Amino acid sequence: MDKLISKLVLSLLLGSIAIGATAEERPRPAEESWMLFCEGCHRPDGEGPGAVMLQRRFGDERMAIKGNTTLAPEYIKQVVRNGFLEMAPLRPTDITDAELDLLIEFLRTK
Ligand code: HEC
Questions:
Q1: For 21-71, what is each residue's pLDDT tens digit?
Q2: Most buried of 34, 60, 75, 97 (most Cβ within 10 A)?
Q3: Which residue from 64, 59, 65 is spatially nearest to 80, judged by alpha carbons?
Q4: How far is the CA of 38 from the centre of ligand 1 (A)?
């Protein structure tokens, strides 16, 4: 029985080491967060539900969130954390506050 338990503990340990070895870089670089969480809906070419809805609601100049320096960082944070109409919120387990700050900086570049 003891042997079984120690085998179990060992395999759990090895398992977590294996996971640790393949874990991605954290904080996740902004470009990766962008590709992982935003780009699919906010395609710069105007494709995706985010770009389509924003264009419909506010017009061409608010279609893109990437490179749009008129969006205040605090506003973007609010939208990401609380959601906005048809956009669902992201939790800190998806994207940490530090990663979100990096992402917002990245969004302000063209
Ligand atoms: C599942 C699709 C989807 C994803 C993923 C998504 N969004 Fe959105 N987003 C939308 C939609 C749709 C809207 C417009 C809301 C509406 O009009 O219903 C929106 C609106 C916004 C706005 C408001 C822009 C403005 O001009 O007021 C911001 C900022 C924004 N999203 C940022 C992000 C960021 C940053 C990410 C990634 C972390 C992201 N979104 C991921 C769908 C998405």
A1: 556 789 999 999 999 999 999 998 899 999 999 999 999 999 999 999 999
A2: 34
A3: 65
A4: 7
Kindly state if the Cβ of 41 falls inside 6 Å of ligand 1.
yes
Sequence letter at residue 80: V
Instruction: Give the burial string for 86-103 (b: 16+ CB within 10 Å, else e).
Output: ebeebeeeebeeebbebb
d(CA 29, CA 62): 25
For residue 29, what are the contacts with CB-CB under 8 A and spacing of at least 6?
A: 102
Output the residue whose Cα is nearest ligand 1's atom 9.
Answer: 50
Can you read off the two tokens belonging to residue 36? 């992982």
